[in-house]
Design a protein that fits this description.
Elements (H helix, E strand, L loop, with lengths): L1 E5 L14 H13 L5 E3 L2 E8 L2 E8 L6 H12 L6 E7 L7 E6 L6 H10 L3 E8 L9 H5 L8 H20 L2 H8 L9
Parallel strand pairs: 1-4, 1-5, 5-7
Antiparallel strand pairs: 2-3, 3-4, 6-7
Helix pairs in contact: 1-5, 2-3, 5-6
Length: about 190
């Protein structure tokens, strides 16, 4: 079984915020695949789909961002899921808004959700799709920025980025992650490569 973990914060107050880019991807995958991400289990909302003959679980941890690793660990233990079958999707300040960046290892880079997953899994080696949110302008606190909504002007880029992330994840179900990285890294959403 493959499993896709989108990081974000639960509740309507956080729904459209930059920090919930991971949830946005899970919601779009669920829409594409006709899945319902409503089962409350493993400190997450979970949905299941069969895609390209592969069973895929979709997870939205309900622990709040800083404790995302608790949900990941709980899912791993309950389903005996392999870490190499997981893809984590999350917002990234160091990637330009509208772009995605795939990685299979690395530090948390200051992202508390990733920090928590590393802490609870004991490794920095797992597949990731980073959703670009750019850095805030000087003078704006990072916490206020990530918990703010994408402005209207950025909505088209955000929608393209979410679609691109979903395309990359679908491609990754049938290809090795390094092949997926080669295909999707470095191009702007909607660009052919």
């Amino acid at each position: 079984m493959r499993w896709i973990v989108g990081l974000g914060n639960p509740g309507p107050a956080y729904e459209k915020t930059r920090h919930n880019a991971g949830f946005m991807v899970i919601d779009e995958l669920a829409r594409r695949w006709g899945a319902s991400v409503t089962q409350n289990k493993c400190k997450a909302l979970i949905g299941e789909a069969r895609v390209q003959n592969v069973k895929v679980a979709l997870l939205k941890p309900m622990t709040f961002m800083n404790l995302s690793g608790e949900s990941v660990r709980s899912f791993m233990d309950f389903y005996k899921a392999d870490l190499e079958d997981m893809i984590v999707v999350y917002d990234d300040l160091d990637t330009e808004t509208g772009r995605i960046r795939l990685r299979y290892q690395g530090s948390a880079g200051g992202h508390n959700g990733i920090k928590s997953i590393i802490q609870h899994t004991g490794t920095q080696v797992f597949n990731r799709v980073r959703m670009g949110i750019s850095r805030p302008k000087p003078g704006l606190a990072v916490v206020d920025y990530v918990l703010g909504a994408f402005p209207k002007a950025e909505q088209p880029a955000v929608q393209s980025m979410v679609a691109e992330a979903c395309d990359a994840i679908e491609f990754a179900l049938a290809h090795r992650f390094d092949e997926t990285m080669a295909k999707f890294n470095g191009k702007a959403a909607g660009e052919q490569k």
